[in-house]
Every structure is written in C-alpha cells, then in structure tokens.
Amino acid sequence: MQFIIEDSYEQMSETATHLLFGKMVNNRRVNLSITAGNSPKKIYEILAPLVKNKNYLSNVHYYSFDEVPLKNEPVGMTEGLLREQFFTPAGIPESNTHFVSPDNYQSYDEEIKAVGGLDAMLIGIGADGHFCGNMPGSTKFENFTYQVTVSPEYPWYTSLVNDLGEKAPASFVTMGPASIMRVKHLILIANGKHKAAIIKKALEGPVDPAIPSSILKLHPNLTVILDRDAASLLR
Length: 235
What we know:
The chain has helices at about 10-25, 40-50, 75-90, 105-115, 155-165, 175-180, 195-205, and strands at about 1-5, 30-35, 60-65, 65, 95-100, 120-125, 145-150, 170-175, 185-190, 220-225. Helix 2 (about 40-50) links the parallel strand 2 and strand 3 (about 60-65). By secondary structure, it is of the alpha/beta class. Helices cover about 30% and strands about 15% of the residues. It has 7 helices and 10 strands. It is globular and about 50 Å long. It has a 7-stranded parallel β-sheet with strand order 1-10-9-6-2-3-5, with helices on one face. A 3-stranded antiparallel β-sheet has the order 4-8-7. It has a single domain (about 1-225), classed as Rossmann fold (3-Layer(aba) Sandwich), CATH 3.40.50. It holds the Pfam family Glucosamine_iso.
C-alpha cells in the first residue's frame, strides 16, 4: 500500500489525474473503472480537456463498478453521474463506455476478464466505510459482482431511501470485493476531515466486514491519495 498525501484537494486531484492519464497512454487496450460522486469532480475537470478529441486514446475503455437504478428514469444514478461529470465533457465515444446493470451483472466479471481485466480502478470511500456498492451489513468479502436488496435490515437503508425518495429502487448491483481484488491497480481517493476517521479505521484497523473498505489494504497494488485533512488521523 502506497500513501500519497497532498496539502490540498486541488493538489490531490492533480496527482490522481496524472496517475490516471499515465495509465491511458499505451499502445494496447486499457480498461479503467472510475467512480462518480464529489471526490473525483476536480479530477474530471482536469482530465476531460486532456483526453477530449485525442485519437491516440481511442484504446481506453471505461467500466462502471456499480449501478443504482432509479424508478421512472432511463438511466441509473451511476451512469447518469459518470456521463455528466466526465464522459460527456470529455467526448468519450459510446463504444468505449460500459455499464454494469441489473440486466448484465451476472456476466459482468467474465466480460471484463475476456478483454484483459481492469488495468486500474479509481474508487472513493464512504464515511460509513463502504466502497463501490459494498455496504456495511450487506457485503461478503467473497462476493463477485452481485445484486443487493434494499432492505430495512441494513444500516444504510434509511439514508439511501431518504436521499432518493420515490426514486429509490428495490435493489442495486455492484462489483464485489472478490471482483475488485482482480483489478491490477487500485487508486483510492479521499478528501476532507469528515473522511479522516474512516480512513484510519479502514487502513490502520483490522479487516472487518462491518467496514467493507478495510479489505482494500490486502490488495497487492493499492495507492491511497489523500489531502491533509483526510490523512490527519493516520499514524
């Protein structure tokens, strides 16, 4: 596990951008999985103009790692955010974007394996310790890509339903820990003091299913990129 700690969110984002762009420039097919949300917004602001209209990056393919379907919406939450935050501003061709969904999740791991596997994955970490759609209470470390029922038995249920309201689905899909351990290079980003406590628990505490992201420290090629605030409680 390699730590890169930058002074600010902007510097953290620049470093992550350079790392991702370096993966892209290759004379073979490159398969990347990237996250949506708040943490990567600056990365995509920097990265989009670097990749737009660059024919030499036509070898880069992008894969989503989870999907939350939204009732009465044509696309799920993750696909919508990835398109809005990066794919549309960067002009990524439809043929180079690939989305996991309730329709294809059972074959998704094999589809990725057939094209050489994922070269890198950019992921974030939730304040509750989740990563991708691997949530406290509903995650088993042996899971490959799987479907999660949205049930009141889980600690995250109320938050998800409150956030999505009437659009909340009955289930969602995510690449599981076993799928993600196959990725050649994991890049974990986090910023802000509100992430400091979970970063410490996940990366310095024991591996614990109650903190799903704690499994990530067992990955053989994990790079953690933090700003000073997110790293403030680390030893």
